[in-house]
């Protein structure tokens, strides 16, 4: 997938497979199989379509959803795929139709690739993550009935775009998919506009979180913590984070004053939640995803291929959230599940909303809040290391070693 003879793949209105400069290579983080992450020499990308920019990457991060790839839970991966969808950098080169950027501009990039032409990108809801024109995957269309947007570094089911855990990356439709970063704002404060801050905010939008409500968040990783930050900003009366990794719960309490925590390794989530909120939380946020099965039954069914995703967490949320309550799902799910408690969901009169985050939609809200110091997502960073340490950091992040919460890589 790396040479001059690589076949160019076209989605509507854009070229997915970029031209390559075979005379100049770069370091990149690539997937070669389950728990097999490597640093490779890869030809640098070139401007391929007139609306492209080439970024020299200054900061890139490992996302919790990258661990789904690391563990082999995401279909459509091919050996040598370049990973990474949380990145920012400096404009190195650009196509002739880029209107709002210039060489040398410092920008952060959305993980979801919008075209700003289709009905989803230009509609009232600005659903860039549902773009019609940036993903050519027939497999995804067969799985889901439609294709969603292309996504950087996240398998051929989302287009097979090269990711940004690299020294250079090509960004298509750059006027839509990049955001200029003010000079006074550090990489650490801006980087997470690429994904996890908008995703945490999106969780509270899907959950329709309002002042005075109670919010329980399953998963105390970076996204769960930023969902808690967003809920607190929206003046939720109580925010409860649920996990079984005590150092993460302690970390959240240290950096998010007022947040409450539940460690389900000591006693069941349902028992502890009922003591805190007898009627159940108003809103439950799922920030866990597909590879964390709690029960032996679902671990076995996933192992032998009877399902791709467990329903453990969703069922627990249905049991816990109050009657008439709201469930927001922003953890990654990829396929089918068994044993979903649709009866309880229906009889309790609940609602559920889910979806990949249209990052670009939230930038006009979130960037000013960061600039004013009202939101600071950088607190989740625990490790900043050179890019070539990525294989070790994937293992550390996945195995929850060295009190790791969030890893930033510096190319």
UniProtKB/TrEMBL annotation:
Q: Which domain of life is it from?
A: Eukaryota
A single Gene Ontology molecular function, please? zinc ion binding
The organism encoding this protein is: Adineta steineri
| Keyword annotations | Metal-binding, Oxidoreductase, Zinc
Report the cofactors: Zn(2+)
The residues forming the signal peptide are none
Q: What is this protein called?
A: Enoyl reductase (ER) domain-containing protein
Enoyl reductase (ER) domain span: 33-409
